[in-house]
Amino acid sequence: MTPSEAGAYAGRGIHKTAVEAIARRIFDGTYEEGDILGLPQLMADLDVSQTVLREAIKVLTAKGLLDARQKRGTFVRPRDDWNLLDPDVLRWKLASGAPHDFFADLFELRRAVEPASAALAAVRRTDEDLAALDAALAAMAAYDNDPVLVVRADASFHLALLRASGNRFFSQLHRVIIPALIERDRTVHSRPHDDPLPEHTAVVERIRDGDPDGAHEAMLRLLDMSMRDHP
Description:
231 residues
């Protein structure tokens, strides 16, 4: 998966439309926690069959957003139960206007994972990993005047970093880190900010040198700069 693939729910046709429409109502507050979904009215509103609606509800139930109980019906689960590690749930949350503390939590996740990933990459990186990191740096330098392309290049860098760790769990966290990073970068690169290229380059050089402690510290400095640009 590339950063540009952090798009809409992967279903097709009317099924996808139903999933997206119900999710949007949950995240925009139309349906609050604990609210019961009136299924006949929802079928009419969305102009879908009972079968399509049932399948859409199954998808959203698997993502922790809905549940169903006898004598109660289908209802919205508490926010603490929503699976924020699911790419669609995270995307819907970001699109709805996540509060500052949400991004603060994501930054803490990045600060825990990415320096450790950099340290592991210094020990485990392959030639292909270094090539991917170098390509991301080159793109960041080439597109520094184009906010859209530099955001894409930055996302590619962090994706390559997680994969270079050689840890399958760290690598999978790109599904959470990359969409949040893209959303943050859109804000940062739309206004004056520190040049991020030197700090990114320092991380890659420490990885290239096989210096895990140096890579860890360089990644911490990069993240600290990131926090200053987007407090």
